Amino acid sequence: MLRIPCPHCGARDEVEFTYRGDATVTRPGPDGDVGAFHDYLYLRRNPRGWQVEWWQHNGGCRAFLKVLRHTVTHEVRAVAAATETLEVPGA
Amino acid sequence: MSQRFRLPSGGHVDRSKRLNFTFDGRAYDGHHGDTLAAALLANGVRLVGRSFKYHRPRGILSAGVEEPNALVELRDGARREPNTRATVAELFDGLAATSQNHRGSLAFDWMAVNGLLAPWLGAGFYYKTFMWPASFWERVYEPMIRKAAGLGRASGLPDPDHYESAHAHCDVLVVGAGAAGLAAARAAGATGARVILAEQDFLLGGDLLNEPGLEAWRQESIAALEAMPEVTLLPRTTVFGFYDQGVLGAVERVADHLPQPPAHTARQRYWTIRAKEVVLATGAHERIIAFPGNDRPGVMLAGAARTYARRYGVRAGETAALFATHDAAYDAAFALAEAGTRIAAIIDPRTDSAAMQRAREAGFTVNAGSVVTGTVGGNALRGVEIGAPGSGGRGDAVPADLLMVSGGWNPAVHLASMSGSALAWDEALLAFVPGAASQHERSAGGCRGVNGIAAAAADGAAAGQAAAVAAGFAAAPAMTLPEAPAPDHRPYELWEVKGRGKAFVDIQDDVTADDIRLAHREGYSHIEHAKRYTTHAMGTDQGKVGGLVGAAVLAEAREEPVAKVGLPRFRPYTSPVAWGAIAGGEVGQHFQPVRRTALHGEHEALGAVWMDAGIWKRPAYYPKAGDADAWASVKREARAVRERVGVCDVSTLGKIVVEGPDAATFLDRVYANTFSTLQVGRARYGLMLREDGIVFDDGTTTRLGPDRFFVTTTTAQAGPVMQHLEFHLASAWPDLDVSLASVTDQWAAMSIAGPKAREVVAAVVTGLDVSNEAFPFMAVADCLAAGVPARLFRISFSGELAYEIAMPAGYATQVWRAVLAAGAPHGIEPYGVEALGLLRIEKGHVAGSELNGQTTAQDLGLGRMLKKKGDFIGRVLAQRPGMTDPSRPRLVGLRSADPARQIRAGCHLIVDGRSQGWISSATQSVVDPGWIGLGLLRDGETHIGSVIVAANPLMGEEVPVKVVSPHGYDAENLRVRA
Ligand SMILES: [Zn+2]
């Protein structure tokens, strides 16, 4: 069971959060074609290691947060607001 | 004679307290402090069960959690609990225990004939035998396997006890209260750290309970811990899993040792413990040796026989032999001799050792360089065959009714492995030990291979102090540690004695060394594959006594070291955990929360029949005296709406306020149609797509002000729509200045529908002209309703003239009663979800059954709503060829050709003998009596007017149905706009 430090609410148990997947994909703009939207919706890197991902604190402040989590050890190293950028170690 | 194997003194049982119990209906007695296994052995009961596959007779092998054989049913009636290990079940007065897994009596089991079929029941038997024909699987093979295999029987009755869950936080969690664990907890506790000490046994002490000379130190340690205010002792508590970020799961058997829990006391408690630092002091499990007949009742782990003698004061046999590969095991022979058991022979593959010499001095016959080649006896051991290693033949038999076996000790590394620590091979111990820690944990004592009680205590003290320091506490003075000799427990490498007869590596699952070799020959050579092919180490004991032995047999077959073969991955649970404990309090009415609308009490007073809508309770219909059945009630309510007026609680619809300078832009992007053009004070039907182009949700959205909208969602999608809006605002368009607020619970709402709706609304509402000219279809305005600030919407789901009044939830009752009173002269009827469904199907409105996550806007006849200009979610991917294919199933109306014949949702729609679609919703019509429905039908429009077949193969029904327009009722919307 993970504990995620919400920048607004403090450290909270993962049961308060909803996972929303890879946060490095961005929705194509109005000019995006079928290929761009296909990639946005369906393609994921699925790394073995660090990943920046979306977690919504829906049992708390409801903010969508960016969380830097290791997919093998589940270590949570950093949490940031949706508008911020998290660097992936070694990337 | 009662308890004829009980010693007159010694151990941790209270001989002044006699406890009566039954086993298979026969009466016995034991003492307070006994386990069921100890009490059975005290009474000379050796045969306690039958094996899983071959139904071979089985006896008590161990004295702890690792027990593979002695699985029994405890208690009876609703409290009957199968597969309970007799070796850990505490005896209580009146306990009724039953052996399991046999047909006929335990002593003569008809299914033991499986043993004769053994050549065909080897590894992979299920996979190979039950392959063909496929139709046999369900009807023949599976029932047969279920009857033949399986262990105990569930009671089949509701559990009368309750279970609870608890959360705990601590600085240092110590798992296991043997010498290492007690010392660790004392050392950590002395620093002032918050310490939890969890022990699965009902007594603290572990192997100290077998050492009378160290009893003073055990008691002193317990007293010291009890005196520390920050230390919590949890006996009868099994830590079963080590999870991420220092979370461990444990189950506390609060009342398992009692006939039934005292009032207001849980049977078991499920702990979630979050620890800053963890000390694992879980000890070690002794392992068996695979030799022919190693499963016969009377074969027992050497340490277990010693425990029965020392802790319980019970001799496990009259005449014993010891088969061991290391010196530490010899203590069992000395302990048994001390208890009065004759030691008939010691069998040891080594040539000489210090313990062997001591044994000879004690007068025991020591067979150095020898192995056990087989066992003699039926349901009980009568003799042990001794021979030279590798001879393969049957050796000379020495009479014995107890054979004590030790192939070495496996550190209990389960929790360390689950925490992420990679295991390392210890060449001296011939076992795996924990590697480097990957979480804040450390192992101490026997579970990391430390030998002897004194060394374990010292190791525990160091680990406990280090853990407390790591948690931020200052080291405190240490305790006095116990002193004791430590016989060498490094074994000679002997995993298997090959010979004739079954040599088991997994006694519970009836897996033999030959089965492992067969798995290897057939290509299942990876330990994980061999495990699944043979079921090795898959039982309730998880291979604690034989798992490594099986791996060693596989290693030999692969001609590779055991270290390379490894063990199957350890996963929770280390020991079986009851479902009741996992479910905790979330059973029955507490299984999930219940949501009630503000009008719940009003519906109850009207006698509503309830239905579940997600976790909401909604009135299905309101039966009245004179209604012949539920359909009569539903049709009466629907007819009131069509002919007069009805009122329906629609508070469960999701309600979201969208506010901000960019609110209109935002809604244009999340809805497939346009909202920026909507006038203030007007509502519009909206359609949301998912990004993949499938319809997500629908509802009406109102513009309350230039920058303020009121969005409604379907009841089911209220949560998902809110998340969908929040996600896109955060991830895709953070530049939009918009805020969202869910107000579902704040606003109650009711729909007033029917030709007389305006009269009723006019009587209730003040401050608003509700005439058709002043307040047309899709108008919205604030008003007072029954004197309460409210909002009036002119929207319709039923197809009639209709209004929706929304008001703060706290005032809902007042308004509801005013509406019923104002409607009484017009014959108003409250109507429930069933009538609501009837009316919308008649009108041809889609709902959840049509918005089923597979349909596009075109499929539902809503394709024209998709705006041509501007971006919106789902726009691009909805244009994919598969989504726009004109032959996709399209929404149609359906009418049973014979009004008396029912059609059902879920029926296939058959055209020319082929399924071309399905019925999504069905009901009875009140405007044109008969069964009607909505469906999705391939090339739907081309079939309008024709009769096709609605087939329900499950119920053997084929009903001719006419395909019609879904909008058969008031297609011009004259009634809605009247
Ligand atoms: Zn938060």
TrEMBL record, chain A:
Domain of life: Bacteria
MF term (GO), any: sarcosine oxidase activity
GO biological-process terms attached to the record: tetrahydrofolate metabolic process
Classification via InterPro entries: SoxD, SoxD_sf
Protein name stated in the entry: Sarcosine oxidase subunit delta
Organism, scientific name: Neoroseomonas oryzicola
From TrEMBL, chain B:
Keywords: Oxidoreductase
Domain FAD/NAD(P)-binding: 171-422
Pfam families the UniProt entry points to: Fer2_4, GCV_T, GCV_T_C, Pyr_redox_2, SO_alpha_A3
Record domain SoxA A3: where: 501-584
Listed GO biological process terms: tetrahydrofolate metabolic process
GO function term, MF aspect, one: sarcosine oxidase activity
Residue ranges of domain GCVT N-terminal in the record: 599-869
Domain Aminomethyltransferase C-terminal: 890-970
Family, similarity comment: Belongs to the GcvT family.
Name of the featured protein: Sarcosine oxidase subunit alpha family protein
